[in-house]
Amino acid sequence: MQYRNVGKSGLKVSEVALGSWMTDLKGTAQEDVARQTVKLAFDNGVNFFDCADAYSGGAAERFLGETLKQYPRREVVISSKVYFGTGPGANDRGLSRKHIFESIDRTLKNMQTDYIDLYYCHRFDKNCDLTETLRAMSDLVAQGKVLYYGVSEEWGGARLEEAQRIIDRYNLYPITVVQPQYNMVDRYIEHEIMDVCAKHGIGITVFSPLAQGLLTGKYRKGQPLPAGSRATWQSDHQINDLLTDENLDKVERLLKVADELGTNLAILAMAWILQHPQISCVIAGASKPSQLENNVKASGFHIPADAMAEIETILDFHRFERHVG
Known about the structure:
Aldo/keto reductase, NADP_OxRdtase_dom, TIM Barrel, oxidoreductase activity, oxidoreductase, two-stranded antiparallel sheet
């Protein structure tokens, strides 16, 4: 396993991290599999474990805290997030100072730790003044409950720039990291977010590197959905929306590239993300140990320049640019 700094901070995370938003905690057998997966991750050099208070209604935090306490705290990087509802009260959601302060205490209790390494704003709160949110997050760093903070989805380049102006004005602790979705078929962060992060030294820890499973190669054009796959049960149908003829045609061509390089599509897809120096790590879920064993092989996997060029031809991505005159 190789490690990278999160932006300009001194914090190092494994190139492949383990996410827990899809962790199945419905029974003893499932918990045992999840526990085995965490152990295998740690044994393979994964030091970054991503979570959120909203995952499984807090059960994911409690599971991760109980599982990780067997390892020296200094050897793991733990993250969580705040925004979504944690109760029926009017102040039980969002990014107000009240909700942030109450949520971090609950998260610390769930995780059985004195501090969280990375704490993210899970969404952008349009109903709360941004200065209030940033002051609260900065104060958590000052208190030692959080070491670094960042933001997750729905924070575009303009919001990050606005946040930076507020941070500079009030001399707050800075945003260290952003966690957007990013993969071969969803490259929106290349339009502006990557440049903004590079400008301010903000790290990027991406989730959904395999596009909900599309980039594993198990979904093939003209073939039935694999039994038990996410596309057969996921309630929000995110993966089903990705199973277009255009995307499946790209998958077929990418599978050939992976085969030529002696690897599989999942490894190729994550290694492709890691070819970008702005990326700190990829956060990949794993419902069973075998998936984790495959995922970690993406760290350090080099894609030759000619293969990278072929991949770009297949993906046919065009960064937004507007020219006048």
